[in-house]
């Protein structure tokens, strides 16, 4: 059907733009301020090239990858993205189910609108990403709820001390809390497939969407003013809070949103099992460098702690460049949500298959069998000019 027109991950973006109301598309596509970090995430990949090897038997190649002793069908997963259920009907479930079917990891966002207990029922191996509430006892309650639901892996996102300046959201008429307006109503009306297929279906099943997973107690409606208060009351969070989480959380603990090598070392010291090098897809501090540029230094500072990566991964070659520079695993954000908008779980499955297919071909053309066997000598920084 329509999905076959998507030949690569980038193709989902214009399809989602046509399908989604402008404020919602803008929320997903956008970044912060001048989009400097968003652009750098893309540019950083372009600054590396491959030095392939030839005439090696690659008939037994396999893009599968192992992380924490678990074998996945590819070295990439789906990054946590908030408000997915506004973008696609039961968006988090669509992502969770597609990831499960394809045997790749899925991370549920703490800013999601479907209860985490419902999501883990759809994918018992889902990971959970937490935005920490400000008060310690609420952090503990949240952790206990996530553990009770059966999640084994917790990501704590640490690059959001305050809300960023996402001017594009304001310009596109999108805000948290969501404010009903004539403009919003109009933007919805002119996208009837989304209006009926996502918005009305959601209202019929769940009523007005709530932030269901930021807080232990109960959901907060997306229209409520106290959403903002809860999101801004975290600016005092520090390493002590991570230590507190480490004492409370028995599962695997990942720290997401690290760029400085010293912070990777501190995360390890405080008991993190891995870090995710990320600038939040360019959505937090605009001008923060692409994670690819700091990846080798972070890996060097991390010892035997796995370093994961996200930001701008769109191609099999991007996955392999990040891995050649030391990433153990990568995560893909926006394209997966666009795919969910356009085709639900089937769309996400198509996106995953496209990326995995690229990886398989890239491995063969690079002359290697597995992504893990990539070395630093497989890539070359173009600015260096000559080998
Ligand atoms: C995000 N991201 C994010 N990260 C997080 O830790 N918690 C969250 O709730 C969200 N929400 C969110 C919503 C949307 C719409 C996007 C696009 C992103 C950041 C995300 O996990 C990841 O770091 C980036 O999206 C990776 O960059 P790419 O792949 O989108 O370029």
TrEMBL record:
The keyword Zinc-finger does not apply. Residues 1-384 form the FMN hydroxy acid dehydrogenase domain. Pfam families: FMN_dh. Its cofactor is FMN. GO terms for molecular function: FMN binding; oxidoreductase activity. InterPro entries: Alpha-hydoxy_acid_DH_FMN, FMN-dep_DH, FMN_HAD, FMN_hydac_DH_AS. The keyword Oxidoreductase applies. Keywords: Oxidoreductase. This is Alpha-hydroxy-acid oxidizing protein.
């Amino acid at each position: 059907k329509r999905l076959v027109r998507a030949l690569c991950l980038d193709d989902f973006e214009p399809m989602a733009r046509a399908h989604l109301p402008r404020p919602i598309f803008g929320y997903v596509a956008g970044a912060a301020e001048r989009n400097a970090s968003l652009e750098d995430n893309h540019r950083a990949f372009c600054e590396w090239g491959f030095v392939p090897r030839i005439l090696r038997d690659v008939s037994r190649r396999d893009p599968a990858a192992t992380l924490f002793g678990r074998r996945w069908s590819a070295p990439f997963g789906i990054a946590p993205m908030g408000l997915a259920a506004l973008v696609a009907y039961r968006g988090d479930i669509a992502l969770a189910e597609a990831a499960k079917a394809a045997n790749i990891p899925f991370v549920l966002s703490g800013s999601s609108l479907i209860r985490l207990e419902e999501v883990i029922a759809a994918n018992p191996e889902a990971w959970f990403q937490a935005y920490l509430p400000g008060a310690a006892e609420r952090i503990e309650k949240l952790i206990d709820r996530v553990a009770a639901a059966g999640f084994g892996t917790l990501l704590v996102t640490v690059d959001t001390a305050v809300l960023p300046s996402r001017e594009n959201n304001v310009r596109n008429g999108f805000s948290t809390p969501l404010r009903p307006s004539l403009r919003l109503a109009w933007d919805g009306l002119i996208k009837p497939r989304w209006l009926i297929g996502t918005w009305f279906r959601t209202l019929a099943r769940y009523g007005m969407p709530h932030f269901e997973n930021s807080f232990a107690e109960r959901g907060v409606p997306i229209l409520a003013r106290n959403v903002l208060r809860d999101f801004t009351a975290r600016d005092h969070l520090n390493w002590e809070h991570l230590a507190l989480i480490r004492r409370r959380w028995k599962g695997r603990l990942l720290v997401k949103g690290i760029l400085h090598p010293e912070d990777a070392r501190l995360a390890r010291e405080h008991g993190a099992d891995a870090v995710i090098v990320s600038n939040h897809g360019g959505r937090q501090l605009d001008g923060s460098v692409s994670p690819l540029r700091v990846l080798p230094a972070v890996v060097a500072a991390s010892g035997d702690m796995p370093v994961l990566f996200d930001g701008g991964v769109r191609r099999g070659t991007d996955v392999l460049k990040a891995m050649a520079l030391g990433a153990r695993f990568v995560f893909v954000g926006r394209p997966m949500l666009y795919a969910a908008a356009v085709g639900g779980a089937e769309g996400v499955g198509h996106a995953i298959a496209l990326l995995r297919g690229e990886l398989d071909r890239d491995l063969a053309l690079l002359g290697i069998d597995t992504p893990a066997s990539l070395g630093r000598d497989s890539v070359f920084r173009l600015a260096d000019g000559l080998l």
